[in-house]
Structure formats: C-alpha cells, structure tokens
Amino acid sequence: MALAAALELDEIERDALTELANIGVSRAAGNLRDMVGHQVLLSVPAVAVMTRDHAATLLAERASGGLVAVHQAFAGDFSGRVLLIFPESNSLELVRAVAGGDLPLEDIVDLEQEALAETGNIVLNGCLATIANVLQRTLKVSLPEVIRGSGPDFLELAGASEEEDVVLFLYINFSVNERDIRGYIAMLMDLSSLKSMRKVLQDFIERTIGQIPPVADVVP
Amino acid sequence: MSCPETDKVEGLFDVIDAGLIVLDSDRRVRAWNEWMTVASGIAADRARGRFIEEIFPETSSSRLVTAVTEALDAGVSTVVSASLHGALLPLQTRTGRRLIHNLTIRPIAGEPPRCLVQVSDVTMAAEREKVLRDRQNARYDAVVDSAPDAILTVDAEGVIQLANPAAADELGYSSADLVGQPIGLIFADEGAWPPAWLKLLGGVPLKPPVELKARRKDGSVSFVEVSAARWRSEARIFVTAILRGVNARRAAEARLRELNENLERRVAERTADRDRMWRLSSDVMLVARPDGTISSTNPAWKDLLGWDEAALAGSPLREFVVPEDLAELEAAFAEMLRTGSRRLFEVGMRAQDGRTRLIAWNAIAVDGLVQAVGRDMTVERTAQTALLEAEEALRQSSKMEALGQLTGGIAHDFNNLLSGVIGAMDLLRMRIADRRYDSVERLANMASNSADRAAALTHRLLAFARRQPLDPRAVDINHLIRGLEDLLRRSLGEQVSLEISLAERVWPVLVDANQLENALLNLAINARDAMPHGGRLVIKTATEILERGERTDVAAGDYTIITIADSGVGMDREVLAKAFDPFFTTKPVGQGTGLGLSMIYGFMKQSNGQISIDSVPGKGTTVRLYLPRQHGAAPENVDNSRQATVTGGAGETVLVVEDDPSIRLLITEVLDELGYASFQAADGKAAVALLESNARLDMMVTDVGLPGMNGRQLADIAREHRPNLRILFLTGYAEHATARGEFLGPGMEMMTKPFAIADLARKIRQIIEMECA
Fold first, then answer.
1. Could you tell me the sign of the dihedral formed by the alpha carbons of B469, B471, B472, B477, in that order?
2. Residues 111-140 (A) with a CB less than 8 A from some CB of B
3. Hey, are the CB atoms on A105 and B133 less than 8 Å from each other?
4. Which pTM does this prediction carry?
C-alpha cells in the first residue's frame, strides 16, 4: 500500500501546503488586482492528494456541465502539469469580472480565451512561483493554454506521463467584483514528483518550525 | 555569445518577425533585436543594460516587471495579451501606426537564469476583429438597442449576459444591473417559466409567445409576452428572449372585460327588473304577432282572466275578445301596424269562468310585434255607469221636483185668479138674471183684474222660460232709470231712502225697455221687503269692459252695469244658491210669487246679459245687471205712458186669421167696434184664397201658431200677392217669436196674447196709420 501511504498527507503537511497555496493565490490576487483595478480575493480552503481516477470522479460529480481549464506544464525538481478548472458557465463571469462589466457580450466572448488564459496564468503562476520560492527550488513553467471539456478529459491529456497518476487537488474560491466563482487547482504529477515535493515540503516545515515531526510511515 | 552554435543563430535574432528582448537575471536588457529597434525607435545599444521600465518610463509596467521577476525567480511563463491590456509598450508599425502586441515572458534556462520577452504583432488581427466587431455591433445595436421590446440574452446557466435599454426600462433596472442577474429572478413569480426554460435549453423555441409575469426591480409585476429561442456560439449555448410589454393591452383587455361584465350585469339587472315587472304586474301584458297570434303573456292573465300562458300562447287574441268588440280590436291592430303609433282601446275580454272583463289596452307595434298592457276597467266602468245612472236619476228627480214646484205654484196662483174670474162671472150672471145692474161694472172689473193678473203670471213664466217675446231696442239706461225714479220712490215708501247715482255716460244697450223697467221695479220691491225696518237703496250705473276669462259667468265684452244695492237682511249662502229658482221665495205665503228673480234671470240671459247677486247676511244684498253694449243705432227714448183711448177706424178692411174661434170672434168684434171691416179665415189655406182674391185688404192680423202653414209662412205668401200688406202677428208664445227682429219684415208688427182690447185697437190703428203715412 505504498501508493496509499504516499497519498496520505499528514496534518502538518496538509496545513503547510494549504498555507503555501494561500500565499500563492494571495500573490496572484495582488497581481490580478493590479490588472483589473479593483479588489480580487482568492483563497484555498482545502487541499487533498488523490488518485487521478478519484479526481476525475470528483470533478464529474461536482460539475454538471462542461468545464474550462487553463493548463500549464511545469518541470524541475518535481514535474507535472497544473490546471485551473472551473465550470464553463462561470467562465464568462470570470472574464467579465476581470475585463470589466461594461463590455458587450460579444466582446466578452471574443476576449474569453485570452482573458481566461491570462487570468489562469496569473493565478497558476502565483501558486507555482510561491511554491518554488518558498521551497527554494526552480521550476520551469510553460505558457498557459485554455482547454474545454470534462474532468476526465483534463486528467488524461495527450502527452501525460503514465506515472502522472497522483493529483494534488486544491479547492479555490474567487471573489471578483462581487461575483463568487468556485474552482479547483489540480496539480498532476507522478508519484516520484509527489515524493520530491513532500520532501521539499518537509524541508520547508523544518525550516519554518525548527523541528522535524515524527513521520513514522513516511519513509523515503 | 561566442559559442559557434550561438553565432550561427545570431542572425536569426534580428530577422525574426517578432520583438525579442533578453533580460539578465538583474532584469537589465541584454539583447534587443532589430524588430524591437524598428518598433520602438530605440536602438539596441541604447536599450542594452537598462531596465524595461527605464526604457518605457511612460508605461505602467508593474505587470511586466512582476512577470519578469517571476520568470527569473520561479521559472514561470506569463502571457500579457493586447486584448486585456491594450498596447502595453509604446510601439509603432513601420507606417507609424500604433502597434498592437501580445507579450510572453519566459524564463531562459541556465545559470544565472535569464528571461525572454517576446513581442508579437497582432495589429492586423486586432484591426480585422475591430472592423468586424464594429460592423456587427452597429447592426446589432441598430436592432437591439432601438428595439421597443426588452431583449435579454441568457447563458446556459440562466444568467443574463445582455440586456438592451428597453429591458432595463421594462424591468426597472439599469442595463449593467441586469447583466449577471439570474433570469429566474425576473420570472420568480411565474410558475410557467421553469418548464419553459427547460424546453428552451432543450432547443424548443418559445413559440408562439407566452404571456408571463415579470417581476420588476421594485417588486411590481409587469405582464410580458415572451418569445425565446436557443442559439449557439461556438460551444456555448445562449437563449435570447424578447419580452413584449403587454400591460397596456392587458389593461385595455381588463377594462373591456370589466365593461363587458358591467354591461352584462347591468343588462341582467335591467332584464331582471323588467322580468319582475312582467311577472308581478297586476296589469295583463301581451306580446302578439301582427296577425294577432299571442306570443307571450304575463302571469296576470291567470289572476285576472283565469287563462294559463299555455292556453294563450299560439292562440289568436280574438278568441279571447267578446264578439261585439272584435271590430274594435281589429281596427286597433290595423291602425297600430299602419302608423306604428300607440293605440288605446277598450275591449271586453272573455275570462275562463265565462264572465267578461273590460280591459283598457295600451298597445304599440314595435319590431314587428304588438306589445300591449291591459288594465282591468270592469270595476271602474261599472262604477262609472252606476254614477251616470245615479246622476241621471238625481237629475230626473230634481227636474220632477222643480216641475212639481213649478206646476204647483202655477196651479195655486191660477186657481186663485180663476176663482176671482169665475166668482166674478158667476155673480155677474146672477146679477144680470136678477136684472140688478148696480154692481155689474164692479164685478166685470174684478173678473178683468183677475184675468189680467193671470196674463201677467203667464208672462212671467214665459220670461223665466226665456220664451218671452221681447222687443229689444237700443236703450239709454240712465234715461230709463230717471223716468222710473218717481215710481220707485212711491213703491219703496217712506222708510227706505233711494239714492240714484248715474254714470255720466253709459253705453246704449239692446234690451226690451218695458221688461227692464219691470225687472228694476221687481228688484226694488225685493229690496224694500228685505228692509222691513227701513234702509237705503242705491241704484248705480256704470260701464265696464270685461276681458276674456275675467268672469266665468259673463262673456267678455263691453257692458253697461246697473247695480241695485240694499242695506237689508241679506241672504245666507243656502238661500243665495236658490235665489234664481222659480217659485222659491223667502216671503210669507201670499206676498210673493217666487218668480221675481227667476224671471229677471231668464230675461237677462235672453238679452245676452247676466245678473249677479252678492249678499252678506245682516249687511245687505247687491244685485248687478250686466247689459251688453249696443253698437250702432242711438237709443230712442221710449214713451212709456199707456193710452187706454180706443181710436176709430175709417172703413179699412182687415183679414183675421185665427184657428181659435173665440179669439177670432173677439178680434172681429174689436175690429167692428173700431169701425173696420173684416174677413175671417180659420187657417192658412182659407186665408190664401182670400189673399188671392180681389177683395180689399189693408191689413192682415194672423196668429203665428196656425195649423198647417204657420203665420210667418202665410205672411210670405201674402206678400207675394200683396207686397204692401200690413201684417200684425199675434202670439201666445213662440220660440221664433222671441227674436222679433229676425222674425219680422218691414210693415210687420207683433202682439202678445193675452192682450187688452185697447192695446189691440191702438196697435191696429197705429199700423194702419203708419202705412198710410
């Protein structure tokens, strides 16, 4: 049950990851605020590590209609891809929130692709940059790409490694321009990447609180 | 950059059709390709070693700085699109236009890390898009923004993405407020919306439009007619709904509906009222066809005549009318249908029990039907008949009573007078038989007096009966009264003072002077009797013009009025009411005949005048005589002195025509006494024979009332033969004799029977002499 054990983040890890994610999205929110000119609130209330299948099921359950995602790939000490996912029905709201409410629908539709890409880019960059900074690791992150489809579509993208069967799942709330939008950030990586990430996470925790908690069942 | 590999591609750096900027780890420009030089106008050597924000100080480049920092620190890549940021950097195309560009900021792997900023020219695409968009928007705006109907475009989640100005107006929002609202909020009060929405999402258009309740921002309801359809934009589903406000139409409809309901109610009420009237009326009501067939009847028929509507409907109305009134019914129907006017007619209607009821119908033909309301007049008519009969009986009994009183009075007076005559004649006969002639003359005078009084009585009766032969002439009343003054004073006696007050001028009147004198004398004596203890009698004359309608009892016209006022006992209302009745008298038996006032009344009526009496008990009585003004001939002042002298004739011949032998004999005796010759004829036929003969005839004395041809006709024949023949008519009474002027031609005179011998002689003499003159 190595996989199950590997998937099991302990409480401190989860807290640390949640905190990291929140730092990241806060940074992104700041960037977004600079861009759109008014307050943007982003928060990550919870994180979880799960299998890809589980994540696909979860997305299918949570979203009845189509989904839209901003995709970026990353490589470095740990590699994989990250997706900002939200219901397609919310995407126009998000665009409108970002681009301003006065634009006609046609313009919003025209802008949707670029606006989603850029917005997602900011949010995802914020998270990844924060993680990289905090963990003092360097990642190489690709340019964003907007894709549409269902949850499983996103999780079985072409070129995905066989090994990428672990998903770090972050819930994310947008509050932009008095509109609340719920979404998810899914980081797909292989088990080794996860292990690497947990390792640097342990380093971070150690650095932060000055001691290594006894993690009996986490043996590299 | 001395690596041969790198040198190989060095040229590429400047020929690539994109802006490339390589930044060092300290964010200073390390490389700046030719494209950048052209687009920014800044040569590479001037850019190199500087921060981007230094090169483009006017650019708000925090986004770019952040992206560069993240790329260098964390290795992340960033896109900055022109569509969201406009032209981030101040770049120009080769023609000097603004260069629209996207930026990508990527880390360049290596140690120390570097960063690549790539600038892509999207001017062409952006412009093309703008043109397309503007064109599209222009079309779109023209339609949508100016549409009078609310247009909402909703995404698949039901969130409003577009609202035109009409929608904002209709729903009370601003356009910006509406966008982003769920459309379910608009149709929150409308149960028909959720199923319609589901159908729409399923691709079934909302057609034909359905009327829905829309909730305005203020919570009020607006009725809209909604048509909607789904459409796709790439992968997205939208629903565009057109909401047409139908409040005005609904209000009009509601108003119309209310009016209709009101009208129905009013019609119903009115109908109910009429129906009630129809049902509850005690009058019978009927609708019949022009041919008289009964269409409908009200329940009063059952109550009044006993007929059920079932028995009546479809039957001819004539079957219910008594046979003797059928002609009346048919005439009424014919008249109604011909003229369309209302007809009132009464016919007897047969009741079921066999009796007849008299119904007064008020009927009119309207819209080809005869509508009639009938009232039962049976009781009224019976009562009316009874009343008429009672009145007739009363009148008859009054007449008989009056006649009885009259005949009684006459008989009484005549008996008295006849007793005097008969008694005197009996005594006379006895004295003659005894050859005692000493008191013969006294007895003869006694008989004559009684007979004279009888003659006066009949005269008065005739006057009352207005059968008095009058001799009206134009009379000066003042003159007449002055001539009567002595006689009046003697009649009134010492105790009554007479005051005569004559108007300066009075109109002449046409009246029989002798009868007027009698009337005045009679009134004066009545007045005297009303003043047993003395008093004052005033006789006045005056003139008066009565306007039409001024008096009910006197016709309008000019009158000379004689007023006789006493200060006597007066009369109460009851006595006054009977004052003109014949033989009514307040005087003790034997003192009066009761014919005085009635005679004067008859005389005045016959003279086209009037008499009025005002009386107050204890104060006195005032009698006014109204005599109509005579226009024309001036009055001749009549000499009233009576001459008893009998004048002799000179051999003239007189034809006497009289059916009564004793009177004929009497007249011939008189003529003989007077010295005239005479022929006698008993009737007109015999008279004509004489008139046609050659015998001398100076005059004809004829009775008016002859058997066969009357006196007047005889006179006409006589004049044919002898145009100058003088004629004297004798008459007891004759209707045609009362208007002397019309009856008598020139050379004709009239005398009333009975007459004194002396009067007859004088009259004959006067006529013959007049003719001779």
1. negative
2. 111, 114-115, 117-118, 121-122, 124-125, 128-130, 132-133, 138-140
3. no
4. 0.44
